[in-house]
Amino acid sequence: MSNILAVFGATGQQGNSVINHVLDDPELSQKYKIRAITRDVNPEKAKTFANKVEVVQGDVRNRASLEKALTGVHTVFAMTTPSFGPGGLEIEYDSARTIADVAVETGTEYIIFSTLPSVKEISGGKYTKVTHFEAKAQAERYIRGLPIKSAFYSPGFFMQNFQSMPFLAPQKAPDGTWVLARHTSTKARVPMIDAVGDTGKFIGAILGEPDRFEGQTFCAATALYTLEEVATVMSKAIGKTVVARQISVEEFAKNTPFEPDVFVETFSYGEEFGYYGPDSGKLIAWAADNARGRLSTLEEFLHAHPLQLL
Questions:
Q1: pLDDT tens digits, residue range 87-123?
Q2: Number of helices and strands in the chain (H, E)
Q3: pLDDT tens track for 209-254
Q4: CA-CA distance, 143 to 174, in Å (whole number)?
Q5: Distance between CA atoms of residues 11 and 14, nearest Å
Q6: What is the DSSP letter of 296?
Q7: Residue 60: is it exposed, middle or buried by C-beta count within 10 angstroms (0-12/13-18/19+)?
Q8: Cα dihedral angle (72, 155, 136, 149), rounded to 10 degrees?
Q9: Residues 155, 18 contacting (CB under 8 angstroms)
């Protein structure tokens, strides 16, 4: 008999990746029956896999809907959406805590949570404004203290961000070149992941061997890339000259359309302390070695999803 796997964020990048990976995996598709949980069961994305999985309405703001959605569930993949602005950290943390509490109350046996490192802790309190990281880190600590088995997925910078957040993509300079600009060194290294293509490969590893990976965190990325390396890859992919350039903090913040302090601190922290701390390289290598499938490189991602420069 298949165990029910409840997937939150089913129509988003991470949840959709988990669903597709499990459906396409001969072993996991027999081991688990998927229950896709989404706030709105009517969107086109939900309809695309409605004939393949059970689609259930569930909203973290409505506890009763979660109790119903998680009834009979064996394993939960949970993720939360960042909430910026006043009280954003508390809002996101409360969402994660509600999911976890309901999972325990309904008898769920295992929770896989999409987390992020604690910037405040790793930086010794130097960086305090990266609230979307901190909310997930606090939620992870909370989940680890609950009477439920757990494992964690901590993704790097989404390769999709170059398309969904154009201000992070190359900008055209007066001389016709395209400039990939950050206030950090062009040699600072950032872990990158194809969130849609590869999230499922990490979650799939946990689903395949839940006892082996209980309590473990997958620091999920294909590799660490410098800004110079990204610019080189982009140049080849789009056939235009892309250069990496370090600019002032003030200029970077001015060119960031929302929450500039958050983005400034996120990149500054990564440069100074490492995205996952001083052992980032080793942690990423371990996760990649244990992923259930080969991971996409940035070159492969940009070939499959051409960058549209504005």
A1: 999 999 999 999 999 999 999 999 999 999 999 999 9
A2: 14, 13
A3: 999 999 999 999 999 999 999 999 999 999 999 999 999 999 999 9
A4: 51
A5: 8
A6: P
A7: buried
A8: 40
A9: no
